[in-house]
């Protein structure tokens, strides 16, 4: 048993060595205090690379164009601001900034936080001109409020705080 960076327990191989599963993809999802842990492996090389991602309940993982459109439509209908994170699972900067992104999602629960894997939804990334990851878009009523490219945690916090402040003022 090993603790993940967010303090949730997760199970990895006892030696943290790579285990082998040939021709098999193993996916384990565990719900813990409102967060979902997803442990993925790969079958490309037959090696298992234990990786854990915790998605707070306010972070929605976008897996299709339909889910993207549905979340944007619902946010527009509800008058909510969207923070969209275009990332790649293999990218160290994306992985490094993810805990900060999750922290912000918990802090600003009145915003809608979306996560898009650039490799899974290349068509969506092309339509949004994603040339680097992570890229964050801030959207309201179908229009872009701001954009941030990079993994500077302080800059992301500033940008999210600014759109949150703007959203709060708009509702008052």
Description:
Pfam families: Thioredoxin. The protein folds into two domains: 2-55, no CATH class; 59-171, 3-Layer(aba) Sandwich (Glutaredoxin). It has helices spanning 65-78, 92-107, 122-127, 153-171, and strands at 2-3, 9-10, 19-20, 27-32, 35-40, 47-48, 51-55, 59-62, 82-87, 112-117, 135-140, 143-149. β9 (82-87), α2 (92-107) and β10 (112-117) form a beta-alpha-beta unit. The chain is built from four helices and twelve strands, in the order ββββββββαβαβαββα. With 172 residues, it is of the alpha+beta class. It has a five-stranded mixed sheet with strand order 8-10-9-11-12, with helices on both faces. Strands 4-5-7 form a three-stranded antiparallel sheet, with no helix packed on it.
Net shape: globular
Count of helix runs: 4
- Number of distinct beta strands: 12
Poorly predicted regions are: 1-26, 41-50
Q: Mean pLDDT, rounded to whole units?
A: 78
From the N-terminal CA to the C-terminal CA, the straight-line distance is 47 Å
Number of individual domains = 2
Could you please say which CATH topology of the largest domain applies here? Glutaredoxin
For the record, the CATH class of the largest domain is Alpha Beta
Structural class of the helices, strands and pairings?
alpha+beta
Largest sheet: 5 strands, mixed
Residue fraction in strands: 25-35%
CATH homologous group name of the largest domain: Glutaredoxin
Protein name: Thioredoxin domain-containing protein
InterPro entries: Thioredoxin-like_sf (IPR036249), Thioredoxin_domain (IPR013766), Thioredoxin_H-type-like (IPR050620)
């Amino acid at each position: 048993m090993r603790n993940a960076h967010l303090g949730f327990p997760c199970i990895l191989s006892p030696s943290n060595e790579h285990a082998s599963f040939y021709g098999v993809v193993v996916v384990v999802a565990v719900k813990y205090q409102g967060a979902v842990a997803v442990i993925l492996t790969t079958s490309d090389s037959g090696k298992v690379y234990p990786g854990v991602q915790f998605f707070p309940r306010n972070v929605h993982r976008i897996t299709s164009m339909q889910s993207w459109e549905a979340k944007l439509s619902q946010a527009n209908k509800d008058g909510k601001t969207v923070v969209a994170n275009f990332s790649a699972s293999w990218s160290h900067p994306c992985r490094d900034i993810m805990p900060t992104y999750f922290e912000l999602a918990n802090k600003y629960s009145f915003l809608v936080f979306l996560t898009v894997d650039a490799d899974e939804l290349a068509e969506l990334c092309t339509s949004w001109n994603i040339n680097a990851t992570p890229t964050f878009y801030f959207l309201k009523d179908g229009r872009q409020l701001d954009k941030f490219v990079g993994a500077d945690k302080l800059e992301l916090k500033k940008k999210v705080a600014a759109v949150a402040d703007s959203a709060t003022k708009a509702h008052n």
